[in-house]
Amino acid sequence: MKRLLPVLLILCLFTAAAFADPLPLLDDYVGEVVQPLDENDPSAGKFEFSYRYPHVDEEAEGGAEINAFYDELVTYTDSFTIPMNEDSDSSTVITYSVTCNNDDYFSVLVHTVMSSPEQSSEHWEGHVFSRKNGSPGQTWTLPRLLGTLKQGENDSWLQDRQTEKADAIVVDLVWDLIEDNEDNIDYFPEFTKEDLSHVFFPEENFYLDETGNPVFYIQPGIAAPETAGLLTYSISLEDILDEL
Question: Is the domain of 109 the same as that of 82?
Fold first, then answer.
């Protein structure tokens, strides 16, 4: 019997992994507006706005809660963002990539490119969802990912305290990576740790990699030239928890 226990344990772990299915993806939420619309010459449009967001299977665990977030985002985009900007001479293209999809988390990195005759810019935004403990229409912040705030805790003082503590730790860890600069990024010489604390918000500025660990980011053009793109810093949950 004692010899069988390790075998049974391995079989149980294998079985659990086998049923750890990723969240099935359905047809994307898609929208496109061109003003004025000329079917013979689509490029003649003065205003263009297109978006693409993930749409998941609501029958799978956590699917309905995730779709609620994108349902609200699409409604806001269609009813407010587009009407507010459709008189401008501009183009906006929103796309996404799934960065983590396992039985615990679903994470998305959204990329927005905005351009006009005068200038162009890009913006990145990470969306992290818990499949087991998520709330409809809500993404997860860093303190919830770390477990320092539990689902349903609404004590504002506790939230502020835990967020401030986690932010300070991550700022320190990211600054260490910036100083090491193993990727040889051409950082602005005048960029300081104080600057980092003003432009980087760890509680929200992250997504998850395929292993479920956070990847923090700084928007293009803030700490280095825009040609450097999105600056990313992978830090394991264990390293952050060790500092808490």
Answer: yes
